[in-house]
């Protein structure tokens, strides 16, 4: 669903149980996820909500070890299938070790990337079989779907301009082509079209504070407390 501040969002899934909420952020590299996650988590904490911020791949000792393998610049020979399985493996561990127990305890979990990253990057970017990716994602998350996913949508050229400023933290996955980024961006948009109740498309080119304000309202109104 494309966010429009004049229309109510359709994510009214206020649960009766004390279960927390799973909020995921998605977008191509340079779309500003990290900044927006920091702003949202700070505001939720201010409102007295227990929050945990996680990143993918990572978030557990096993996941961080997998992350190092995935991002290592020396691993130029990693095939696409290995990459896919490693992302899925890190996710399976994160869900069972951290996310599910946190949700049970009423925490709100904000995840920097989750299963849609695999669908967009490995499915559309690398063009691996989407049905196979769907099955693998299902295995990894085991029914633990996000309550809401914020997709920070930004033209590839704008994302590249932002990334130029952080040349220092380049890793193996930061060397993808513009065509790859474009396929990934379009992939995200298609995923959002297919699941408009869960995935909210936000215009990430707009001013940071305004965007943060919109996201906060979507989350509070859509997910309740
Ligand atoms: P990271 O440094 O965390 O990038 P960002 O700060 O932009 O999130 O590296 C994660 C990289 O891994 C990023 O380029 C996206 C990619 N990725 C996939 O290709 N598939 C996945 O399933 C996930 C979780 C990430």
Stretches with pLDDT under 50, minimum 5 residues:
10-16
Write down the CATH class: Alpha Beta
Sheet with the most strands?
A: 5 strands, parallel
Strand arrangement across the biggest beta sheet: 2-3-1-4-5
Note the topology.
Blueprint: E1 21-26, H1 33-46, E2 51-55, H2 61-71, H3 80-104, E3 108-112, H4 115-125, H5 130-141, E4 148-153, H6 156-164, H7 178-194, E5 199-203, H8 208-223
Parallel strand pairs: 1-3, 1-4, 2-3, 4-5
Helix pairs in contact: 1-8, 2-3, 3-5, 4-5, 4-7
Bound molecules: thymidine-5'-diphosphate.
In a few lines, what is going on in this structure?
By secondary structure, this protein is of the alpha/beta class.
What report would you give on this structure?
The protein has about 220 residues and is α/β, with parallel strands linked by helices. The chain has a single domain, classed as P-loop containing nucleotide triphosphate hydrolases (Rossmann fold, 3-Layer(aba) Sandwich). About 50% of the residues lie in helices and about 10% in strands. The protein has 8 helices and 5 strands; from the N terminus they run E-H-E-H-H-E-H-H-E-H-H-E-H. It has helices spanning about 35-45, 60-70, 80-105, 115-125, 130-140, 155-165, 180-195, 210-225, and strands at about 20-25, 50-55, 110, 150-155, 200-205. The protein has a 5-stranded parallel β-sheet with strand order 2-3-1-4-5, with helices on both faces. The radius of gyration is 17 Å and the shape is globular. Thymidine-5'-diphosphate (TYD) binds near residues 118, 121 and 122.
